[in-house]
Specification:
binds adenosine-5'-diphosphate; binds magnesium ion; seven-stranded mixed sheet; alpha+beta; six-stranded mixed sheet; globular
């Protein structure tokens, strides 16, 4: 029996889906960071949903209920950010709660969900509450697009590939948490194990546990430059480049991939380890986008922390260069199945 593959399964669902009718007013269907539809008043609405499950997307023995609540909203806002000029408006949150969960835990979780929604002016609009084997959180966000929608598929040959933030921190943070084996502690942030970590290790762990969406940055970038395609790096930088390159191709200079001082310190001199985290770590929600090469100076001028890591080609291959040599890199990211 062949193992399930998340990406092939989504392709299967897409292929077997019925075409939307005209009255559905679908602008962008399954396959992007958000679904987009046009309303009768001609506004465009974006919709996204993401599920988070204990032991896969977070761990209740590593993170506080507040941190889990914040992450559940941030990761969904990140998909709205990927659409360029969109803003989230409404959140629906469904929770599957195991029997032994305390009331205090759930109240703290929901306070944090509410606080994070408030930060983005999102109205909590509904959801569902059920019992479950493992804590399961499903969030759906509905947002509005004020201007042009940026999809994953608009890049053209010659466009430059840009990224926000740094890559690999979250993956390294996850490894650190495994290695310190603080699973016996309820919350490592308050216990001695966490205090045993070095400062740079703590910062890496922090980036894994509470990611931040780049909504404001995405809105400003789209206003000030001609972005041709965009996604967020939830499945890692390697996967994001693959999505934007589509059936064209790309070349990425590995030395240009931004990495934090904390990650460099953690990986010491092991460059293979460093690039492995940077390309496949995932769960970090940075923006990965393309823009016409004429926009390079404008982007550099307005956005100091945006880095150019490569360009789109038309040879159907994605090449990774290190020391000017092509490196053979195969997908080595998280697999759900
Ligand atoms: P993201 O990582 O940005 O949340 P995903 O890789 O999870 O995106 O999903 C890619 C696309 O596939 C999205 O359009 C999403 O809505 C769609 N998708 C994922 N899982 C399913 C599913 N079970 N049924 C229908 N569509 C799905
Ligand atoms: Mg996404």
């Amino acid at each position: 029996m062949t193992a399930l593959d998340e990406f092939k399964l989504i392709d299967f669902i897409k292929k077997h889906n019925t075409k939307p009718k005209k009255f559905h007013n679908v602008d962008l269907d399954i396959g992007d960071d958000c679904f987009v539809y046009n309303s009768s008043d001609k506004n465009k609405y974006v919709v996204t949903t993401d599920i988070l499950i204990d032991n896969i997307h977070f761990r209740t023995d590593w993170a506080t209920p507040e941190q889990i609540g914040q992450k559940a909203i941030e990761v969904n806002v990140s998909d709205i950010a990927s659409m360029g000029t969109a803003k989230p408006l409404y959140a629906f949150i469904s929770v599957g709660i195991p029997k032994n969960t305390s009331e205090k835990f759930i109240k703290n979780f929901f306070s944090s969900v509410k606080k994070t929604c408030d930060k983005y002016d999102i109205h909590l609009s509904g959801g569902d509450t059920v019992g479950a084997e493992a804590l399961t959180i499903s969030v759906t966000l509905i947002g509005i697009a004020y201007d042009k929608i940026i999809t994953r598929t608009g890049a053209k040959k010659g466009d430059l590939i840009f990224v926000s933030g740094t890559f690999g921190d979250s993956g390294a943070g996850l490894e650190i948490m495994y290695n310190v084996q603080c699973t016996t502690y309820k919350n490592p942030f308050n216990f001695s194990t966490f205090r045993l970590l070095n400062r740079h290790e703590r910062l890496l762990v922090q980036r894994h546990i509470v990611p931040k969406a780049r909504l404001k940055l995405a809105n400003e970038l789209t206003k000030k430059s001609n972005i041709t395609s965009m996604t967020d790096s939830s499945d890692g930088l390697f996967k994001s480049v693959e999505l934007l390159a589509g059936n064209k191709g790309a070349v990425v200079n590995m030395e240009q991939i931004p990495v934090s001082k904390d990650l460099v310190k953690y990986c010491k001199n092991d460059l293979n380890k460093l690039y492995n985290f940077a390309l496949f770590g995932g769960e970090e929600f940075e923006l990965v986008f393309t823009a016409d090469k004429q926009d390079y100076d404008k982007i550099k001028k307005f956005f100091k922390n945006i880095k150019c890591i490569g360009k789109i080609t038309d040879n159907k291959k994605i090449k990774y260069l290190r020391n000017n040599k092509i490196r053979n890199i195969k997908y080595d990211g998280y697999k759900h199945f």
